[in-house]
Structure formats: C-alpha cells, structure tokens
Design brief:
single chain, about 475 residues, alpha+beta, 4 domains, 8-stranded mixed beta sheet, 4-stranded antiparallel beta sheet, 18 helices, 17 strands, about 20% strand, elongated
Amino acid sequence: MGEHQSDLKDLPIIYSYNPATDATDLVQPMNVYIYTANLKEYFDGYKAVHFVSSDLYKRFKKTDLDAFLLALGCKDTPRRIRTEYDKREGELYQLRANYGYEWNYYLSHLVDDYDLEGLDNFLKKMTKERSLLLWKILTSYSDDYFKSTYSCKGRSGYVRSYSFVTKFIVKINNLRWLYDKNNNLKKPMEIALSDLSDDYMSENDDSGTLVDILNFQLDEIKAIEEKTGGKFIPEGEVKLYEQWKAETLGKTVEEDEEIEDSWIPDVAPNDIPVKVESVEPAAIQIAAPKEPLDSVEDTPKDIIGETESEDINNDKSVSLKKIGRWGEEYVFKYLKERYETYDNFEETLSGFRSTKNNSTTVTIIWPNKKNYIQKGYDFLIKENEVAIEYIEVKTKTSEEKELIRITGPQWEFARDLFNDNHGNKYKIYVVENAGSKNAKIKKIENPIKLWKDGKLYAHPINFKI
C-alpha cells in the first residue's frame, strides 16, 4: 500500500461524518480529522468539520487505522489553513526592506500566511476548560507551525525566504483567552508568565515554544508596576492611551503625532551600505578642576563636544524611539551581511540562524525585533548555542562627540561579564549619522575595561544605597 499512498491522498476515500449536520460522505484525507474528545470540544458548533466515521473502527484496529490515516493526511490536531495576508502593521514593507534592496530589485514576491481552522468559532465561547484545551493544542505544535513565510525572487534568480508570526498567533495575542491566578481573563500582553494560572503548566510541560511566541509581560515589568503603581501599556494599545491622554489634557492626537513624527530619516537603514569601524578611545587627560563640576556645561568640552546632543536628549523635538529603531535595523542589516554567506541562512521570529560547513551554527537573537524587551543588550550572537557576543546599540543623528546614556541594567550586565572574565563579549555599537547616507557603526569592545583603564569617560555616576 505504501507505494500507492501518495495517489490516495487526493482521492475522496475516507468515510466521514459531520457532527453539525449528522451527514456522512466520502471526503479527501486532507479534510478529515481523527475523532478525539478534545477535537470534538474544539470544533463544537463548527459546521465545516469532518471526522472519521466510527464505522471504520469496527473493521480495523484503532492504532493501525489511525497510523494509516495520519500518513494519508488526516489530522488529530487543528490544521493550519492558508489565508490572505492582510499586510498587518506594515509587515510586508518591513519583510521586503529587511533584505536591504529596493522593491523593484525583485521580480516576484510570495507571502504565505496561515490561520487555524475553526479558531474563530472556538474563541466565541471562552471558559477555563476551553482555554486550557487551546493551550494544550497549541503546545503540541512545533516552532514551524507558528511561522508564515515571505519569499522573493531577485533579478539574479536567487530566491530568498524567511518567516514571520502567523495570523492566528497575532489573533490570540490580542484577545483575552488566558486565565490568571485569580481566574480573570487576560490577554497575553496583560500579564506576566508568573501570573498565569498554574493549571496551564500542569496541562503540558512542553510549553516553551508557545511561551516564546506569546507576548507575555516580563516579570521585571510586573515588579515595576507593583513598585510604582503605574501600568504597562502594550504596544498595540499605545494609540488608545494617547487618545485618552489627549482628551484628558485637552490636546489633540494630531499634536502628539506631530511631535512623534518630527524626525524623518532621509534614507531607510536597509537602503544604504553598511560602514563599520572598531575604535578604542585614547586615555582621557583631564586636569583636576579647582571646584566641583556642577553641570554638563562645566565638563571639559574635548570630552563631550559643545553640549549633550539635542537629538538624543530632547524628546520634545524628535522621536527617540524612531531614532533608536533606525539604528537597530542598521545593525541588524550589518549582522545579516556578516553571516548570510553561510550555507544555510534562515530568518527566525527573533532574528536569524545560519550554518557553516554543517558544523557551526550561528544564531542571532534580536529581543526588540517585535516588542520592546529590556535585557541589558540589543543583540545576542550564539555559536553552537554558546553566547559569543552581546551588542548594545546606541544611535545618534550626528558624528559630534556626545554623552551617550547607558542604563543601569546595561552597565551591570557588562560589568557582570567583565567580572566573569568575559568582558570582551560585550560590545557597544554606536550608530552615527542615523537617517542619512553617511551612517556608520563604531564598535567599542569591553566598555568596563576601557572605563577602568581611563579610556571611557562616564558622567554622571549614580549609585544606590
């Protein structure tokens, strides 16, 4: 039977029934599900589902029949179904731009996006039991099940493809379907993983892939909320908050947007060549002041230029977020060019993966690729799952000397590496002239050592007791 199996897959040979209509029919294997109690609950009320008829199990042993049906294309979990790509959140432009070429460079484009069959019907009625069922179903899938693909063929004939989050994951990330420890319904972005009801983890221990793909709050954000009494605003709800704030303060949303959009880059980071240089500052020579330095204006000008950069510090005139994002995308392009010549180059949901000579696998992780995540670094490079480089990106719109802010978590992360004799793994990539064709990256390695050696000027220093 094995040699004819592929011929059978396209034929309506599976005797099946539809529980919504009680009708029986012969259906193609690719449209039939093996009956389980979980699938019966999942598809309850869904009118287009077909289950293998119980009559078949009267003639064949269940384990043997199930194995044969699965091989033909029947499923025991909800299928992914191809759906129209709706260009959500401007992803299509970003997918194209990530390759660093103009749109007209490509001869053809193909986007394969996926939904989960029956999901919309299932989500209409949510209970704790149904939520746990959906969690169990989702944790049974591999990482690839959550990926949609974008492919493009260049003028050279070379086809590139990489992945992005499927439509059904975007959907459940924006719906309240999870229960917290107090049995309140929450969106993933509204709670930390530690707030999730313990029933989810006891349902299935193999939940790592799903946890990574859902937009859970970080426990650090939860701690800040509890300490300050403030509330974290998920990225998808920022506009709603701005509208509320505008109404409360008597401003218009347009006024806020005018401030937000006041910085407009001349070029996109992927439209210009990457320039990189490694730098090691010379030892700082500063004459001891007769009086204490009371302000930035008292700081020696050969260290910082005329003043701290207005581009970096005046958030009323420019969007710091847009400038920082431009710099990260520029560095991401550099890292891709650095590794995409390896044998197998594959985009992932959080960066990319590349293999050389089938022996060395390099993984680039960009925590901020989809959502803002504070980790003390912006990029992590791993070689055969061993961390070899941590990159913190700092971006400015000029090449003048400026004081560049390093946060406490970033400095402490670098210091911990230094104390463990791995200080050379931490690098600061300073992107200069962001938004212009003269942009370039200056790489600074082991900032803690440079500071200790008197080659990196730090001002001011804050401490906590």
